[in-house]
Records
---
Amino acid sequence: MHLIPTQDEVVQLLRHTGAIRDGHFDYPNGLHATEYIQVQLAMRYYQHAKVLSVGLSRLLRANPEIRAIIPELSIVTPDTGGLPVAYGMCEALRAHQVYWADRKDEGSPMRFRQYLEQKPGEKVLLVDDILRSGRNLAELKRLVESTGAEVVGLAVIVYQPTPKTIDFGPLPFYYLAKLDALYYTDAGSCDLCKRGEPTEKVWI
Ligand SMILES: [Zn+2]
């Protein structure tokens, strides 16, 4: 394994731990796909979690603008799935702090815990295990920026773009592996559905 794992090494690790699955998947947003990724299955193993988060932190350290602000950097994640990535990166980078958002109920807006407030001008790196639709990370970005903090970058282990992925514009974006599943925009256009292959519903 390289200090920054290659795309092939990441894919091999994810397959080996069952985090990449082949089949016919029905996503909550209506997309059908030939591949499903659940990075948490790989993050069960501490050594794997460490290899991935340290590798990702090395990509960030290579950016001189980010390297200069590491001591004051907050690493913030929208979901529990991002926590092992966030803590692993914070340890490797020696960044300032880690925190995360959550929701009162499914469908309610994202929020931070009581008394957790950003300082105006606080430098924030958004982190998650995977960027797929980008919906959670986009909501987190709005929430962080609404308090006057500054989002300086976005980092994920796996980037799996879909036809519905949100564009984050010029924000520096880091990932260890980019995976292109074959996506169909709905059941009507899905070749696997046409062949009558049974679907597997995925939650997220
Ligand atoms: Zn289908």
Note: The chain has a mean pLDDT of 95.
---
Amino acid sequence: MKALVLKETKRLAIADIDIKESVGPDDVRIKIHTVGICGSDVHYYQYGRIGPFVVKKPMVLGHEASGTIIETGGNVTNLKVGDRVCVEPGIPDLNSKATLLGMYNLDPAVRFWATPPIHGCLRETVVHPAMFTFKLPDNVSYGEGALVEPLSVGLQAAKKAAIQAGDVAVVTGCGTIGMVTAMAALASGCSKVIITDVVQPKLDIASHFGMIAVNITKQDLKTIVNGITDGWGVDVVFEASGNESDVLQAFEPLRPGGRVVFIGMPVKPVLVDIVAAQDKEARMETIFRYAHIYPRALGLMASGKIDVKPLITDRYKFEDSIKAFEYAANPRPTSVKVVIEM
Ligand SMILES: [Zn+2]
């Protein structure tokens, strides 16, 4: 089948690749429709590795997918041929301790699309367990289906923050993940979400979603937080930039007893100000992907509580997917999500 293959660092090709996949009794075969390009795909394309994960042989990219069921295994009852679906890209060992404990995202044996050596989904079809494949509600498009993956990261962060109705939050970083985290925080009950960045066009997009956009090159975050919270501080800080100085200052806008969730992944170890955290008895959380979140994300999309459609700013055809990656590696500041339609 045709696939977008990362041959080696900075070298992509649309190639015919021989992936033999048979549909087991609990599996479905999916014809891929839309794939979102994620920061991690672009990172593998540019650098050939993320931390310990190194691309050593040609790998198909992509892990944010929607499509249509074209075959089902004998045990599958929740899906049928023709169903429009989105796909959770990580497959844990269902007998693992992590899975039994309800945190299958942390199973050390998890196989995750486009994380070497596992092939991703930028190809004609994939075979996947039915239990990690989710039917799209009628009013949710394939494009939105592909965005369930990044949105799930935001919802996992909101869950870890244990948001209470009326909380006020700060999100640092206005990329796709910052944006979906702010959406998840608002949908989870936050009364106000302040989002920061240094790139004004991204902040302009955020302000359309009812977020309070703060350009930290021109405005002082602490002053704005103090104004909104009468000097008390925000209940939750979501660090979604992975930026060294944002991590270091993460506790500054926080109220006493508040929560900080670290979402962004700094490219190297960075400093965390422990005393600033202790001073407020801050609770610190981290996240790694998500678990049991896809149905919630789809429910929020279907109900209209979260609308990710405006985040899809650039669409490419599969034939132009190399161009799509070149663009995603160096996008205009007004771009949020680049998707490829098969
Ligand atoms: Zn992603």
Note: Residues 38, 40, 63-64, 149-150 surround zinc ion (CB under 6 Å).
